[in-house]
Amino acid sequence: MCMSCGCGHVHERHKQGDITLEDLQRAATNHGLSVEQVAHNIERSARATAGAGDAQSSSSTRGTAAQDEGVPARDTPNM
């Protein structure tokens, strides 16, 4: 539904940053979860950060997803 706005068109991205069913499917596949589990985790995380302030919640989670997935830090090429 552009799952962000709730319009019911799950495969359409109306605006940059909108979430589609394909985005949730990709996240589910990456973690071996169902789409429903991913949606539940997103809702749970959103509720947990509600009222914590946008800047605080986004900055506190920015590096952790990559760390949790074991993604190595990107090296900066020497110039």
SSE layout and pairing:
Layout (H helix, E strand, L loop, with lengths): L1 H5 L14 H11 L3 H15 L4 H8 L2 H5 L11
Helix content class: 55-70%
Q: Order of SSEs, N→C?
A: HHHHH
Average residue-wise pLDDT:
75
**What's the Cα radius of gyration?**
15 Å
Largest sheet composition: none
Strand content: under 5%
Terminal-residue CA separation: 45 Å
Q: Any low-confidence stretches, pLDDT <50, length ≥5?
A: 57-79
- How large is the count of helical segments? 5
Helix/strand-derived class? mainly alpha
Descriptive tags:
single chain; 79 residues; mainly alpha; 5 helices; 56% helix; flat; disordered C terminus
Note down, in words, how this protein is organized.
- The protein has a domain at 1-45.
- Mean pLDDT is 75; it is low at 57-79.
- Helix content is 56%, strand content 0%.
- Helix 2 (21-31) packs across helix 3.
- The longest helix is centred in the middle third of the chain and has 15 residues, at 35-49.
- The chain is mostly helical and 79 residues long.
- It has five helices and no strands.
